[in-house]
Design a protein that fits this description.
This protein is an alpha/beta fold and about 500 residues long. The protein contains twelve helices and 21 strands. It folds into two domains: about 5-90 and about 295-460 and about 465-500, Aminopeptidase (3-Layer(aba) Sandwich), CATH 3.40.630; about 95-290, Glucose Oxidase, domain 1, CATH 3.50.30.30. The protein binds zinc ion.
């Protein structure tokens, strides 16, 4: 496709010529292949050691990005270009155990075979305490569903299922066959804490064929490297509780005196969404959890540009992408030039371009680079849990992740079904830029726009497609195509500008 004239672009975007052409053109053209390339070469240099979360090198990358934001004249939100959060690395400690006390008989169970402590667990001992079966441990007033409705779990242990009721039912009130937020362990833990529980025992769908609980502790695995301990984002505010996941034998033993089975309880809840919660009679539990927890601080890097419209400036358009990668593995540096020094560079250039406009867009804009994406979208989840403005004021989010490889003129647009407006804005912008667009829903769950989408924000994700170097030590600077980054970044500039200036908010379609 040919590039169209700037005049055509002004008509398309319905912008006022008075503040128009040269001003926007100047900002657009400030996004250059040369500058994008320079950012990538800094961020993906061997000296950055693959920007692992957390690491000193990731902090150096954060300092670089914040300096760029500052030099571009952008504002530091809440007084800092950093939005800090904690990441935790837990190792299994010594002394984890659980026993059932039934009529004075104490039966101890085995770690790995019968139970594993959960990484969210706090350390401590709970002695001879009653256990309440509490369904899925979900309180969802909007669905008129509450597993805690008729029970008192104060200072007791709750036994709950993983997931949510009617999990495979496409017409389920809990987001159909997809998981809603209520299926998340973190949400269950917070809900149990709110109801005063001190211990949590988790068990999988009893129809599933399992004997042991799922195990993610390297020290319980054969031949697992010692440092293969998963990193978690610290999310539970105000403490936690003792938490374990159980195997089938222990689940069965807990229910023994009740005259009910886990399968019956599971099926009954699923059939009518009525809670089946009750105290397990004749049984007490003693449990001890011991984890060795190492806490580190990391940060998203953010910058703000206040909108120019007195009303619309209370809404945000967010442009973001992750700046972390996977570090050094087996002595090899994973530089992550495409993934995602490229997208990070795009965010930097976009911030600079928007700040250069004579008048900022009507809506306010937030430029963000996230840490911990490779560990599980930590930074973007941290943001959506702790937003600068309430999430309902976020009008759109554009994500840049891997924008520098494959055909120079090709771009992959992921999530075009999420908003007709955003897709139309992108199509309009592409009348000027003229890239070959592929639209898809593949990889929709795999980058930082997803937590925004889950909160009801229309999103669009810009990407260059798969490469053989993805998550390989060969994802290096020499392989990026700066001209391609320039085109994609300019495409995003025009798309985001139109979105930030349109009086009507973009639509949101929950398509998956
Ligand atoms: Zn990435």
């Amino acid at each position: 496709m040919q590039k169209r004239s700037t005049l055509f672009f002004i008509c398309l975007f319905g912008l006022n010529l008075a503040w128009g052409q040269s001003n926007i053109d100047k900002a657009l053209k400030s996004i250059t292949a040369e500058e994008l390339k320079n950012h990538v070469y800094f961020l993906a240099d061997d000296a950055m050691n693959g920007r692992d979360t957390p690491s000193a090198e990731l902090d150096s990358a954060a300092a670089y990005i914040s300096q760029q934001f500052m030099a571009g004249g952008l504002t530091a939100p809440q007084g800092s270009y950093y939005q800090h959060f904690n990441v935790l690395r837990s190792k299994l400690g010594k002394g984890n155990g659980i026993s059932l006390i039934n009529d004075g008989t104490v039966t101890a169970y085995k770690i790995k075979k019968d139970f594993v402590p959960l990484a969210v667990s706090k350390n401590g001992i709970i002695e001879e305490t009653a256990v309440i079966f509490a369904g899925y441990g979900i309180t969802a007033p909007e669905y008129n569903y509450d597993d805690y409705a008729e029970i008192d779990v104060q200072n007791k242990i709750v036994l709950i299922f993983t997931g949510e009721p009617q999990a495979k039912d496409t017409s389920s009130i809990f987001s159909g066959a997809q998981n809603s937020d209520y299926a998340r362990l973190r949400v269950k833990v917070e809900n149990a804490l709110e109801h005063g529980a001190i211990g949590l025992l988790l068990i999988s769908n009893p129809h599933r064929n399992f004997r042991r609980p799922p195990n993610s502790w390297p020290s319980l695995m054969r031949n697992a490297p010692v440092n293969a301990v998963p990193l978690k984002r610290e999310t539970i505010k105000g403490g936690s509780l003792a938490a374990m996941q159980l195997g089938k034998k222990l689940g069965k033993a807990l229910l023994e005196g009740s005259g009910q089975t886990l399968v019956e309880l599971f099926d009954n809840i699923d059939s009518d969404l009525q809670p089946r919660s009750f105290e397990l009679s004749g049984i007490k539990v003693t449990m001890e959890t011991r984890l060795d927890i190492e806490k580190n601080v990391t940060q998203n890097v953010w910058a703000y540009l206040e909108g120019s419209d007195p009303l619309l400036k209370d809404e945000l358009v967010i442009i973001g992408g992750h700046y972390d990668h996977v570090g050094v593995q087996k002595g090899e540096i994973y530089n992550g030039a495409d993934d995602n020094a490229s997208g990070t560079s795009g965010v930097i250039e976009l911030a600079e371009a928007f700040a250069m406009l004579d008048q900022p867009p009507k809506r306010s804009m937030l430029f963000m680079t996230y840490s911990g994406e490779e560990k599980g979208l930590f930074g973007s989840y941290h943001y959506t849990d702790n937003p600068l403005m309430p999430m309902e004021n976020t009008a759109a989010m554009f994500c840049l992740d891997m924008i520098s490889r494959n055909d120079t003129n090709a771009v992959v647009i992921i999530g075009d079904k999420c908003s007709e407006t955003l897709t139309a804005n992108c199509d309009n912008a592409n009348e000027i830029i003229g890239m070959d667009m592929t639209k898809t829903s593949d990889w929709f769950l795999q980058s930082d726009h997803y937590p925004f989408y889950k909160k009801g924000v229309p999103v669009l994700f810009f990407n260059c497609g798969d490469t053989e170097d993805l998550h390989q030590p060969t994802d290096d600077c020499e392989k990026i195509i700066p001209e391609k980054m320039e085109r994609i970044t300019r495409l995003i500039f025009l798309t985001a500008l139109k979105t930030a200036n349109s009086v009507d908010r973009p639509d949101y379609i929950k398509f998956r």
